[in-house]
């Protein structure tokens, strides 16, 4: 079993969610080749659930994500890039994690989002709100196997979301 952890970049602060999720039910065969659709499909499904339009794959944003993922190969640390895009990160202790599992983890933080107050209650929800941020239209993601055998996943969003005081949808 693997444990997956995530982090999200907010407009005014970085919030790290140390949500450990046992992936016994989510584990799938190791990805031989990851496609943009592997990232887009779970993002767009979550967005459709709140009537937000789909994202499109952006090769420039994806190249940025890949370059940053390659910087994390040695340590697999959940360290935000500090770059120009919105960002969700995940890392796993296993190399068998399908990239969709990371997106599922980010979306699972929806339980902490209270639309009425536009705030997270009882936990971090910034990864969820970035996934469904209505103004984020372009997506670029990457996944690498780290030196420790784990997996590092990054999705970058343009324009960035999680702007303080604004609602995601």
Automatic annotation (TrEMBL):
Residues 34-165 form the SCP domain. One of its GO terms (cellular component) is extracellular region. Pfam families: CAP. InterPro entries: Allrgn_V5/Tpx1_CS (IPR018244), CAP_dom (IPR014044), CAP_sf (IPR035940), CRISP-related (IPR001283). GO terms for biological process: defense response to other organism. Keywords: Disulfide bond, Signal. It comes from the Eukaryota. Residues 1-32 form the signal peptide. Gene3D superfamilies: CAP. Belongs to the CRISP family. PANTHER family: CYSTEINE-RICH SECRETORY PROTEIN-RELATED (PTHR10334). This is Allergen V5/Tpx-1-related. It comes from Macleaya cordata. The lineage of its organism: Eukaryota, Viridiplantae, Streptophyta, Embryophyta, Tracheophyta.
